[in-house]
Each structure stands twice: as C-alpha cells, then as structure tokens.
Amino acid sequence: MSPRRSYDQYCSAARALDLVGDRWTLLIVRELLAGPRRYTDLHADLPGVSTDVLASRLKDMERDGLATRRRLPPPGAAYVYELSARGRQLLPVLQALGVWGEGALGERRATDAVRAHWFALPLLRGLESGSAGSAGLVEVRLEEGEFHVRVGAGEGPVYGDGPAPGEADVRLSLDADTCGALGRGELGLREAVRQGLVEVVGEGALAKELREA
User: What is the CA radius of gyration of the chain?
Assistant: First the structure.
C-alpha cells in the first residue's frame, strides 16, 4: 500500500484531494456506483489503467474508508469491491465534474474508448431534474449496449450495466448522436423526447413525466 500523500493544507478542498485527487480514483468511484464489481470487471471497464495502479488505488480507497472488499458467497466465491456510504457521497461530485467537463468533451475521437454505462450519470441527472420526486428503474438502450439507472436510488447502486434487473418503470431508446449531444450538454433529455430523438416506452410515473415534459 502506498503511503498517504497530502497537500498538508488546512482546507477542506485540499483534504478531499488528498483522498480522491490521484489519477483514476474518481473513475473507479464512477464504476463502483454501479454496485459491487470484481477486479477483472473494473480493469475491463477502465481501459488504460495498469493492473498495478488499479490495485494500488483500490487499496488506498479501502484504507481511506471509501470502499470495501468482500467475498461473495458460493457459487460465486469471488472477491468484489464496493463503495462505502462515504464513497457513495461522491455521486454529486462526479455529476458536477461531468457538467463542468461538458464543454471539453467535443466529438468522440478515434482513440476514445466508450462504454454504454458511461452515459448513465449525465442521463441520471437529466432524469432527476424535474422528475417531481418520482423514483423508478429506467432501462436505456443505445447502439453501444444497454444499461439501467435507478432514479431516487437512496443508498443502493445508482446504475448498472446491461438490461434492468426485473421490470423497468420506463425504457428509453436513443442513438449515439443523441447520447453525445446529451453528454456535451447541447441537448436536454426532455427536449430530446419532445423532438422524437428518445423513444419512451412505459406507463409509470417517470414515463408519463417524460412524455409530458
């Protein structure tokens, strides 16, 4: 385990960066917001990170109380990492960074990796803004794959890779161009629905709110 590095400044922002300022740490948090993940799954969804760096960051996060490691019961019997309650509090931090970074996103470069669930956090933000307090499970279908988000998730995972586990309250279908515009902040989710760029299927409260927006 690497020794803790510190800015040694009596400032809450500096203290926060002592914990999450290292490269890859916040992206690991992004992945763990989906719930428990195996090391191999994390490595697959963090293209570019070395095995040594990933292992080091996970150990640091355990030490600092941001994540825990536990063994799944049989027949899984694999070790998984998951966020602690303190680690889950970083969700609005990541969402704020996403908003701040929209202007730098630009068009996708040939060297850019992409995973469908990376669109989950900006989409969740769009769903929660103006949802009138409605909670629910949303399944999203993109050209790159499927993921699901939980509006009003509380203490649990806020999104997950693949189809919704169980019956979704609403299903959204959209293409890569619309996803890119949403991620860059050029288009709002409700505006995209009004323009027919997002197909909404479902009869739950969230579906009705999206159609009526």
Answer: 18
- Distance, CA of 113 to CA of 168 (rounded, Å): 28
Residue labelled with tokens 């690991």? 28
Cis peptide before 75 (omega within 30 of 0): yes
- For the whole model, what pTM was predicted? 0.90
Rounded CA separation 44/96 (Å): 25
Q: What is the pLDDT of residues 22-58, one digit of tens each?
A: 999 999 999 999 999 999 999 999 999 999 999 999 9
Structure tokens belonging to residue 36: 């428990």
3-state secondary structure the chain: CCCCCCCCCCCHHHHHHHHHCCCCHHHHHHHHCCCCEEHHHHHHCCCCCCHHHHHHHHHHHHHCCCEEEEECCCCCCCEEEEECHHHHCCHHHHHHHHHHHHHHHCCCCCCCCCCHHHHHHHHHHHHHCCCCCCCEEEEEEECCEEEEEEECCCCCCCEEECCCCCCCCEEEECCHHHHHHHHCCCCCHHHHHHCCCCEEECCCHHHHHHHHC
**Tens digit of pLDDT for each residue in 72-114?**
988 877 999 999 999 999 999 999 999 999 889 888 899 999 9
Evaluate if residue 172 carries a pLDDT over 70. Answer: yes
